[in-house]
């Protein structure tokens, strides 16, 4: 019997709006580090962002429409650290707005807009001037005029500027307010309010500046075939240019590359890595530690569970992102006496119409030892692992305390519900945590394995619903014994068992027959939309193709399903989901949003965007890495000096080569042939191929 949602679920619990590192459900937890760019509570509907061109190089954002002009409407503007530095930037040439003809992203932090202008008196079809605007997330805009005329042109150029210096949350909720008055400043304009200042400088300096209208003017001489450019720079008063983490030589994400019979593979990996780099943030107190923001434009701060999940999926690109994320979150862990000791704080997450909100703090706490254990397998140095081990021990102790004498872990509070996916997270944490404790001679491993063994035996009885179709896992059980029977993508976490030594996956909660049945269900038309895995089956009550937990395709869950199905040997189902997401990625310009509608795919259709989805999003970009590296089946064990390959034998995308990955701290390259045979082409010295 389904549970109704709690009436207390507000916008602050919405997955697109929540603050990172909030206390869990109960009040009174320790204060955690404030994220630099999280959207505060909003009272209205979010303005649509699905058709926006969003340039990202955090803490900088530039949000535009396809017309290229910044009009101050909606979310348009240049942002820095969550504040809109410039909301209006309208270009006029010869007294007219150029005609927009193309807008496209050329990198994660750059967008290019092309427009034309006809000046001939005869009104012919050919343009006389091509106007190109390149907009950067760091607050730079370059406007280039190129003459296609046969005569010398003298062009008056005007740029109308304005800003409200509003916070992104105020912009999103319609509370931004009017433009502030401008003043002429140096070679541009300046705006001020009680909470901030913004300056636009121009090169070359304008010939005229009108503060009352926020207007800069130039008279440009343009010979036939020649070009002239104007560059605008937007930033807070006294601030230098943005130094994005990805631009530093110390970026923690390896610049891996892919080649394949399927050209979409190369584009997806390249764009995924660009998006990950664009979302990198530094811990302000410990700047050597990097982590990922959840996504733009709504969630430009850390969401602990998602930061860990993304870091885990990107371990093939190196362990430094995982290490920085773990260290950053370790500093937020609750310590001291009490049942919440060892918990990593996290906000609520809306769970759809069938269950009350879950606590992402529990998920993050269970992910911490898993990410640490697997990062060690991929090559995290032993010293760094040992430094983080006490934090992982406290996470595991919290798990044992939270379970107590019971069998299952409730979420979000004592008394249930007992969610299927929470048990999968807890079981995996126990097994990988025990393996980690054993490796360093710490106690507690046998007790964790014993609890996991007992939970596995009970789970196969308590959480499995027999029916005429072969059965299914329950979404949750209630404290009174009732079950929540709907089939959703949360069940894919039952297939994500984690990596142990010598390339062996950990044991899962389902037996072989149940695993086979789950694979059949995930590959069936109710769950596989043709574009990826629906978050709720199409035959379930309250199915909504746009519901972020009620039917939309969530890229992270689809990638977990593909990896889990492939590891369990169900390559047909894994390949179908993989091809679906790859086709969706192509439709989205290879920049995957965090979710999109779960409408059934048709021959002439395209995936429908979700208007409130983040794009780029950390888990979606990381999912692109996981999807492609799953094809090679890389299972490293750096402490043992081995790497095992379990490629998808059906080679669903043909031959694929992956270069520039990282295993055991060194470059790693692998190729999978059209026959599904894998070959290591580059690896660390002494790394042996496992059986």
A few lines on this structure:
The protein has 691 residues and is α+β, with helices and mostly antiparallel strands.
Question: Would you mind describing this structure in some detail?
Answer:
- This protein has 691 residues and is of the alpha+beta class.
- It folds into 2 domains: 53-242, Glycoside hydrolase, family 65, N-terminal domain (Beta-galactosidase, Chain A, domain 5), CATH 2.70.98.40; 246-689, Alpha/alpha barrel (Glycosyltransferase), CATH 1.50.10.10.
- Helix content is 25%, strand content 24%.
- The protein has an 8-stranded antiparallel β-sheet with strand order 7-8-9-10-17-14-13-12, with no helix packed on it. A 5-stranded antiparallel β-sheet has the order 3-6-11-16-15, with no helix packed on it.
- Residues 1-43 are annotated as: Disordered.
- This is Glycogen debranching protein.
- Residues 62-233 form the Putative glycogen debranching enzyme N-terminal domain.
- Residues 1-10, 28-43 have a biased composition (Polar residues).
Write the layout of secondary structure elements.
Blueprint: E1 53-57, E2 60-64, E3 70-71, E4 77-80, E5 83-86, E6 88-93, E7 99-107, E8 110-117, E9 129-136, E10 140-147, E11 153-162, H1 168-172, E12 183-185, E13 188-193, E14 196-203, E15 208-210, E16 215-222, E17 227-235, E18 257-260, H2 263-278, E19 280-282, E20 290-292, H3 304-313, H4 320-330, E21 348-349, E22 358-359, H5 360-378, H6 382-403, E23 418-419, H7 420-439, H8 445-462, E24 464-465, E25 472-473, E26 476-477, E27 483-484, H9 512-522, E28 553-554, H10 555-568, H11 571-587, E29 595-596, H12 618-630, E30 634-637, E31 642-645, E32 656-663, E33 666-672, E34 678-682, E35 688-689
Parallel strand pairs: 31-35
Antiparallel strand pairs: 1-2, 2-4, 3-6, 4-5, 6-11, 7-8, 8-9, 9-10, 10-17, 11-16, 12-13, 13-14, 14-17, 15-16, 18-32, 19-20, 21-22, 23-26, 24-25, 26-27, 28-29, 30-31, 32-33, 33-34
